[in-house]
Write a structure and sequence with these properties.
- The chain has 1 helix and no strands.
- With 42 residues, it is mostly helical.
- The longest helix is centred in the last third of the chain and has 7 residues, at 30-36.
- It is elongated and about 50 Å long.
- The relative contact order is 0.09.
């Protein structure tokens, strides 16, 4: 079941700007984690 997205609320404090943080990338380190993990199933 998909959750309904609520309206985007800006939870940052007034002294911070979204542009100060650069580009936001989802799953930036996913490939690195996948390559470094070793899962052993019985």
């Amino acid at each position: 079941m998909k959750k309904v997205k609520s309206e985007m609320t800006d939870e940052l404090r007034t002294e911070y700007k979204r542009s100060d943080f650069g580009e936001i990338v989802r799953g930036k380190y996913a490939n690195r984690i996948k390559a470094e993990t070793n899962v052993v199933l019985p």
